[in-house]
Amino acid sequence: MNRLLITGAVSAVLAAGSALADDMELMVPIGADGFTWDGFSELENAGIQGETLTILGPWLGPDKELVESVLAYFEAATGANVEYAGSDSFEQQITIDAEAGSPPNIAVFPQPGLAADLAGKGHLVALDDSMADWVRENYAAGQSWVDLGSYADADGQTQHFGFFYKVDVKSLVWYVPENFEDAGYEIPQSMEELLALSDQIVAEGGTPWCIGIGSGGATGWPATDWVEDMMLRTQSPDVYDAWVKHEIPFDDPRVVNAIETYGSFARNDAYVSGGAGAVASIDFRDSPAGLFSSPPQCYMHRQASFIPSFFPDDVEIGVDADFFYFPAFAEMDLGRPILGAGTLFAITKDSPAARAFIEFLTLPVAHEIWMAQTGFLTPHKGVNPGVYTDPTVRAMNEILLNATTFRFDGSDLMPGAIGAGVFWTGMVDYSSGKSAQDVAASIEQTWSSL
How far apart are CA 274 and CA 287, in angstroms? Predict the structure, then answer.
């Protein structure tokens, strides 16, 4: 059954007064097989029929249509009217609206840093006390998501403000299955096995990795992802958090070690296609091309879920290219950490409809409607992965659901001058031969002067 093509209508009683549900057909009929409808009918008792819920988020174009396809079900269940507005300058708009006293009921933040800032100024409304417990129990790596959505309020008291919905995964290694099969290579299950495989490839005359960190004015950022992944694989999550918050200095030995662990890949001439000296000059978009040459110029490429956009047009994911989890060190006993990103929903203007909407996001079907279309990952353990129509996305979500720790891209949480400034340029300097200690000390000097 192709759920992308199924449409249906809800009863007139449920749909009464719902703008989106009136304007568009629901993607699947309420009660459709394969979707998890537990709790959906209870929203009918929310008592918000006819109430308007305003939402401001970052999604435009096709993504706006996708989120609206989900919002239509909230309208259908409750009889509320949802008004969603997308903005490509969301960060500026929500700040202006909040400070002017005219925010939407719900804001969808692309990353938690701004949400934390607004919470500290009294512009976010804490979620119900039970919501943190729900997230702990129902999200994979649940405590991670509670931590990422909890911030100090205007009185300095930490409260749970953000509900994460729609996640991205960065801890992935891409490869060509045919190349692995021809060479007799197995998918490594630990970092020790990954390093052993890299050494084996070198011993057999191949080159294990394609790495490029060029990105125009943003050159260096791909290396920051490597370092963040290595922090999560060499240190406990609390050390990662302290680093991101500058509670430990950037040149702490643990951070220097993570940079050098990245260097054990990127600064090893035998490991990198083109040699270590080419890493800083190769554009990250061009870097994976070596996977597809014959013979292969490299066997592996570490990059986030978006990188297939830069693969050759005729490459079919799952056939011509695939991925596996960027593994942790078995000897470190740090579980299965995931580096990624995601959006969080927060209440910026309280109302019964806003509270009911956050409850709606806890329902599996609120995730499954988007899952059944495109580009949606969720840590919700109660969803049915069978609704995915794309096996690649399903496999990524399985990695996410097996995570024991999730942490947000650290550079996105640091001050812009660091995370989008000297951290980038420092990784270029390090990849080009400067010592990790000197690079880290220089970044620390800048951060301490802010």
Answer: 10
The pLDDT of 375-399, averaged and rounded, is: 96
Strands 337-347 and 163-169: antiparallel
Instruction: Based on DSSP, count helices (H) and strands (E) in the chain, helices before strands.
Output: 19, 11
Summary mean pLDDT of the chain: 94
Cα separation, 100 vs 94, whole angstroms: 10
- What b-and-e string marks burial along 206-232, b requiring 16 or more CB atoms within 10 Å of the CB? bbbbbbbbbeeeebbbbbbbbbbbbbb
Amino acid (one-letter) located at 273: S
Going by C-alpha positions, the residue among 176, 169, 258 that lies closest to residue 436 is: 258
Among residues 356, 376, 338, 329, the alpha carbon closest in space to that of 77 is found at 356
Token readout for 232 is 């999560």
Distance CA 166, CA 389 (A): 17
pLDDT above 80 for 17 = no
Cα–Cα distance measured from residue 343 to residue 147, given in angstroms and rounded to the nearest whole number: 14
CB 2 within 8 A of CB 65: no
- Identify the CA nearest to 281 among candidates 173, 381, 428: 428
**Is 226 a residue whose pLDDT tops 70?**
yes
Burial class (CB in 10 A: 0-12, 13-18, 19+), 320: middle
Q: What pLDDT does residue 18 have?
A: 47
For the packed helices 436-449 and 253-266, what is the interaxial angle rounded to 10 degrees? 130
Q: How far is Cα 413 from Cα 425, in angstroms, rounded to an integer?
A: 17
- Structure pTM? 0.91
In order of 28, 171, 411, the CA distances from 223 in angstroms are 42, 13, 11
Q: Are 163 and 346 in contact (CB under 8 A)?
A: yes
